Design the sequence.
């Protein structure tokens, strides 16, 4: 049952991420055509900066999910209700503080951003509107989300999110094409968040009749919240700060350039996260009930699956990213989006920071080892910010990405050390060897593709055909490579997937 739930979560998350990638490509292109690169860059910068305020969650979601693993496994309703009632209380307080910060930021940001061509009142309204989505999340949705994730039912969230994303996209694209004011477009689209809340609310009421969010008693404290908070802050500083730094030091047009490349790779990250969403809760519940032998076997299979999928995706992206950007931005003249150095830096940064790091981060989170990684991550992220500011002034966007690459490499080392010494007890040498094998197979696939299919792409049709060929070629190289270098483990993974599909 645990494997089947993980499969449901993974499939629906893949479906949502796939749709999000498609929508993510369509919307910015239309916004750039209708409103210009500066407005698109502004919307992207605001959305990314507002995410900083999500740290007010104080690591609550991660701590609550970890706390729910054991009572859900043993069906202790009393303990579950205590945890969820405390969660509701904390989220309500966080929502009040978050909303206050959004109002404050909306009053300051219009006067410090490098965007003279956009009216300050528009900037003010966009910050308020984009920020409202977080308020809805804290006040209404978060207390239900943590329960579904901990119980390996995030597939419900994914299915609802697919529906809401479709409605949201129709509103934004339709109103933009009719040339409505960008602030009015965003505010109308905000209504879809209430649809998501209503559906999830009624599902919780029906599926969990014994759950009580108003359970009387003392509020439970979550001891590892501060450490989870530090992890979240570090992640935000590393991955989201470039938007803010670029908007202040370079300009919102450059934010749009960075955002288009980031759109591609954040979409790939979302697909990879689908694995994490489906399996982290399962690993956590195995560790909570001390089923170590099952855990180690499942982890080794997960590591190989994660490496194979990330290698496949980022190898394909290395081949296809520049041709895609060239076709995607054809006809746009207010900014130069074609930058081979930027493309290369995005590929290696996301491959290391997301693809290779994910299995170790998943294990650390499943085991609740937040304290062991929090301080090293915080020091690394703060150093990254300071160096990014310096390199932004010297080398612009490329300088920021160079710093980000070295930062995520250090983060990878941190997670490997903690995961291998505290949880899996697998030799670090073996882990490094697995990573080197993954990198070798990926490089072979990328280098040999040019001999199989020389790139000559001028439109979407050419790109799609090339993408299909690249997908099959990289997949073929990965299968052959794994059969040669990881034969036993790879065959075990295929056997497990076949067994799950039969159920």
Sequence:
């Amino acid at each position: 049952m645990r494997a089947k739930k993980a499969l449901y979560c993974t499939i629906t998350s893949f479906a949502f991420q796939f749709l999000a990638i498609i929508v993510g490509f369509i919307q910015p292109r239309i916004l750039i055509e209708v409103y210009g690169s500066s407005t698109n860059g502004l919307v992207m910068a605001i959305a990314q900066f507002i995410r900083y305020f999500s740290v007010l969650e104080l690591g609550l979601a991660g701590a609550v999910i970890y706390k729910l693993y054991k009572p859900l496994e043993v069906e202790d309703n009393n303990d579950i209700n205590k945890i969820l009632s405390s969660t509701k209380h904390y989220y309500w307080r966080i929502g009040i503080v978050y909303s206050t910060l959004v109002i404050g930021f909306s009053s300051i940001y219009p006067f410090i951003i490098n965007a003279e061509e956009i009216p300050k009142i528009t900037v003010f309204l966009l910050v308020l509107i984009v920020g409202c989505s977080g308020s809805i999340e804290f006040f209404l949705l978060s207390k239900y989300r943590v329960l579904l994730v901990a119980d390996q039912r995030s597939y419900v969230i994914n299915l609802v999110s697919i529906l809401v994303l479709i409605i949201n996209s129709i509103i934004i694209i339709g109103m933009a094409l009719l040339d409505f004011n960008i602030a009015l477009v965003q505010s109308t689209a905000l209504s879809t968040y209430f649809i998501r809340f209503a559906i999830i609310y009624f599902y919780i009421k029906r599926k969990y009749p014994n759950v009580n969010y108003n359970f009387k008693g003392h509020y439970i404290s979550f001891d590892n919240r501060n450490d989870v908070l530090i992890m979240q802050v570090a992640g935000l500083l590393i991955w989201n700060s470039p938007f803010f730094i670029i908007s202040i030091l370079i300009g919102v047009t450059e934010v749009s350039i960075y955002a288009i490349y980031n759109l591609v790779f954040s979409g790939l990250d979302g697909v990879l996260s689908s694995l994490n969403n489906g399996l982290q809760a399962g690993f956590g519940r195995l560790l909570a009930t001390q089923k170590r032998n099952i855990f180690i076997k499942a982890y080794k299979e997960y590591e190989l699956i994660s490496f194979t999928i990330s290698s496949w995706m980022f190898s394909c992206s290395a081949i296809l990213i520049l041709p895609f950007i060239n076709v995607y931005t054809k006809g746009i003249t207010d900014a130069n989006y074609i930058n081979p150095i930027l493309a290369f830096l995005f590929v290696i940064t996301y491959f290391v920071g997301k693809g290779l790091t994910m299995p170790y981060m998943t294990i650390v989170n499943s085991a609740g080892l937040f304290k062991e990684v929090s301080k090293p991550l915080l020091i690394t992220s703060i150093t990254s910010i300071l160096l990014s500011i310096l390199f932004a002034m010297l080398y612009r966007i490329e300088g920021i990405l160079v710093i980000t690459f070295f930062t995520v490499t250090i983060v990878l080392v941190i997670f490997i050390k903690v995961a291998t010494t505290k949880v899996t007890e697998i030799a670090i040498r073996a882990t490094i060897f697995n990573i080197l094998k993954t990198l070798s197979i990926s490089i072979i696939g990328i280098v040999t593709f040019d001999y199989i299919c020389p790139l000559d792409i001028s439109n979407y049709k050419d790109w799609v055909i090339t993408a299909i060929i690249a997908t099959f070629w990289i997949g073929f190289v990965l299968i052959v490579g794994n059969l040669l270098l990881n034969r036993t483990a790879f065959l075990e993974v295929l056997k497990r997937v076949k067994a799950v599909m039969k159920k």
In short: The radius of gyration is 23 Å. The mean pLDDT is 80.
